[in-house]
Amino acid sequence: MVKLIDMLELYFNRLVAFLIGLVAASIGLFAILIPVNLIMVKMQWGSLWWLNESAEYTLYFGVFIGAPWVLQQGAHVRVDVINALISQKSAIRLERLVDIIGFTLCVCLCIYGLRAMMMEWEDGTMPDKTVSIANWIILVFFAFSFFMLALEFLFRLRRAQAIVEDDGKLSTKAGF
Q: What's the CA gap between 98 and 17, in Å, rounded?
């Protein structure tokens, strides 16, 4: 059973790494396309009319799809003051409690996203934009990201002791 969970976590981590790679590539692509668009406008060669709204959608998708990676890396906002004041055993328990709460919230938000997605699917709602992506597709990404976050909280629940032990060390793994 442990090997199955380890294998599931390995594939999950690979999926998260692939998705964050896509997010990074999209950011890099927009870092190139925005100056290209400005040059095209200044030279009066036209413009990439779809660029602004595409960047808006891509940032939305990237933030949600990138959230499990941020949680996995421990790069999220976190206050470790309490863990520093209590024993390691209590810190592990607190870490597990927070992971259970995080898992529960993410499952609730995933269900909410799925319900909203189904309503948007039935209504066929489209935004009033030049680049129009159906609202239900946006909500699929919302629900999927919270599903992925819920899984990451479960995996963190397994790794709680290692996470607390790593918190005591200086880390250059995450952050700027």
A: 24
